[in-house]
Design goal:
heterodimer; A: mainly beta; 7-stranded mixed β-sheet; 4-stranded antiparallel β-sheet; 1 helix; B: mainly beta; 6-stranded mixed β-sheet
């Protein structure tokens, strides 16, 4: 059974860089869009951005170009970096598989979610 | 503030039908498919409805619909296990990205 396994530090100081990775077990990256979603404590979901298997990316403009999502097909890993974090970036971050492209349909068709990583930004 | 508008809460007694609305605009709900996700307490969201009204295998009692710039999710035969937050989502042509509603918390009385 395919699973997404996330890893990365859970505590950062303001101005540091958030760095998370996501690996696929029981499967491969395939021809999917790999997406990061975040959820501040007690709040709703926010789309961070996605990377396609080819390396093409798209980001939420609200992140003001601080986010970088990359893909390593040799190790079947997807990574998220978020620069210059503040307390407002405190959230649970989810790695998510988007099958929209494979299905030829506009999404967000998120069929597989990682366990989530709580990242807290505090001095 | 979320791009898609959902009521913050909805409730019903066991066996009842509960409906959750999701209001958007011509750049998202009005021109693209709507998806629904269920988030049980302490868990990651789970895929519930795709392409406005299609259900993945294993999902029953949940139905979706869309008309114009609004969509809705109906839960029939409400059960205590349905207590969760429900989110609508869509592609937004103006943002060139995905947008979500703020979520609706369903309580079974």
């Amino acid at each position: 059974q395919e699973q997404l396994q996330q890893s990365g530090p859970g505590l950062l100081k303001p101005s540091e860089t958030l760095s998370l990775s996501c690996s696929v077990s029981g499967g491969s990256l395939g021809s999917y869009w790999w997406t990061w979603i975040r959820q501040p404590p007690g709040k709703g979901l926010e789309w961070v951005g996605y990377v396609y298997y080819s390396g093409t990316t798209n980001y939420n403009p609200s992140l003001e170009r601080r986010a970088t999502i990359s893909i390593d097909t040799s190790s079947d890993k997807v990574s998220l970096k978020l620069d210059s974090v503040t307390a407002a970036d405190t959230a649970v971050y989810y790695c998510v598989r988007d099958v929209s492209m494979v299905r030829g349909i506009v999404g967000p068709w998120f069929d597989l979610w990682g366990q989530g990583t709580l990242v807290t930004v505090s001095s | 503030q979320s791009v898609l508008t959902q009521p913050p809460s909805a409730s019903g007694t066991p066996g009842q039908k509960v409906t959750i609305s999701c209001s958007g605009s011509s750049s998202n709900v009005g021109s693209n498919y709507v998806y629904w996700y269920q988030q049980l307490p302490g868990a990651a969201p789970k895929f519930l409805i795709y392409i406005n009204n299609q259900r993945p295998s294993g999902v029953d009692r949940f139905s979706g619909s869309k008309s114009g710039t609004s969509a809705s999710l109906a839960i029939s035969g409400l059960r205590s296990g349905d207590e969760a937050d429900y989110y609508c989502a869509a592609w937004d042509d103006s943002l060139s990205g995905y947008v979500f509603g703020a979520g609706t918390k369903v309580t079974v009385l």
